[in-house]
């Protein structure tokens, strides 16, 4: 075997040949030729390696699309899907456990899509009582950078301490980009805000001074939604430049005269939420019931507020929330006079028996979304909603949410305890979904608040048959959940069935 065949064929051969001594120029020429040959071979190997690595990545990506089909979706569809992962109320807290930060942690492809979707980063709610101030400015700056030119929804809650001046300056530097603003800061900081909000459409504030709120809104010509959440000491007087409001919420009780004045002076008001003074629960007979054709959503806060229905005619009302102890006769007269097709109804069934519940529910045949608060007679309500027992009750119903309170005196309730109601729930759901005369019930949520002396009590135990029936309903498309919040001597605890349920927000609450 000659000397050339014994030369090492690897990356160290250049080093070894360079360390040898050659006696003649010919030997050096031969060695140089061998080195050039090895270099050419290595270059070819590196080129082949690069080609193989490209092929490897392509095969891995193709296999990933088989194992994880969602990765094969076009970027536009994934981006749009991500936007639906944000909470419907729009108050996006900077948490790594929820969108959008959670989406950016799944894989590199999702991270790229999330970072390129500016709408994911355009909503931010900062609770100054919960988040360290050392992180706030960096979070805001990063969110605004990723949002690019997308209109912003910003919330600030600093009711226990002053907001950092640098943080307010940072947010106000983007005032021209802010479309929705939840502003809850100390009075001295609110007064010092001097900025123009050319695209601001919705403002919520707890500021006490109405005049200062009006001064603030003079620099927001497009504002259409206003939530006054402070407990002001006097009635509200809307200035003329806000007569274009379409949404108005007033937390503190107002007088009947103020309520009617607001309705008359805001001709395009669509959504109104308020409470009446307790002194004004009696309505003069001499007053007429004017028509307000634009009002489509009415939320009455206090138990005296329903008396205003005697003075209103709302032919296009679609959403109605009534307080507890509302008078059925007044409501029936209002519905008959308005000839309105209410689609979303919220009722309080505190201290109401089954027959009266049936009368209330029968009065609203057009309702598709029903919310019941403070229901003490859950079994009676379930019977009222069962089409085999009450075939005329809400035939268009597709969405039900019930909140109920109960007390457990026994340490261990029996299987038929009134806190469970599994059989009645299953029977009502099956009859609703099987009935040819009713719309398909798509969502049912039961929120139980239970007060018990035994912390070890299992508050929702549907049993094997109940689990089987409910699992079948869920598999067939029913959005179902029971959430139990228990209170005992040791504190509170929340239990959800089925476990791991992800709620589906049926309606947007925040623009």
TrEMBL record:
Extent of Low complexity compositional bias: 8-25
Region called Disordered, residue ranges: 1-27
InterPro entries named among the record's database cross-references: LRR_dom_sf (IPR032675)
Gene3D superfamilies with a match to the protein in the record: Ribonuclease Inhibitor
Organism domain of life: Eukaryota
Name this protein carries in UniProt: F-box domain-containing protein
Protein species of origin: Mycena albidolilacea
